[in-house]
Amino acid sequence: MNQIRPTTVVTALVVTLFILLSGYYLYDKYYIKNGLEEKINQVVKVEHIEIAKQENPPAVYIRSSKIKDLQVVYRKTAEIVYQKLSPEYRIVFLDERTEKLSKLYETSSFIIHEGITTGGFQEMHNKVRQLAELEGVSCHLTIDSSNIYLELRDDHGYLF
User: Fold this and answer.
1) Which of 4, 6, 15, 112 is the 20 to 30 A CA-CA neighbour of 56?
2) What is the signed CA dihedral for 110, 69, 143, 122, rounded to 10 degrees?
3) Does the predicted TM-score (pTM) go above 0.70?
4) Which string of b and e fits 85-97 if b means at least 16 CB within 10 Å?
5) What residues pair up with 140 in beta bridges, in sequence order?
6) DSSP assignment letter at 78
């Protein structure tokens, strides 16, 4: 009567593993991802969100075409992500860039890096806006103590 039955042990292990994995899946999907999406939706309308824990550093990818001020949205979103997940996560706003916007960004990146290096932020701002105007692209460039935020939009796409 005191013998351990291998089939009972294996069955108990399989059932336990199933319950644990199911619980983790539900926790991850409904508490983490949906909770995060719900909180971020209070800041900006989210079209898609993906949490990439396996990346180094881990990332949260967010797609939203309704961003009016990238700096404000980024800062509020970062606060939510850091509270809900951890400060090691990076936030990436996905865009729908066109070839025209990509080329404009490549050209602007030299101006932006020069502005960072020299500290000529006002000149950087003016040059990037002039470049965007020449291409017929809407440009919103802002800066805070940690980041430079660049939004480019035309009739066919947007780039953050």
Assistant:
1) 112
2) 70
3) yes
4) eeeebebebebeb
5) 151
6) H
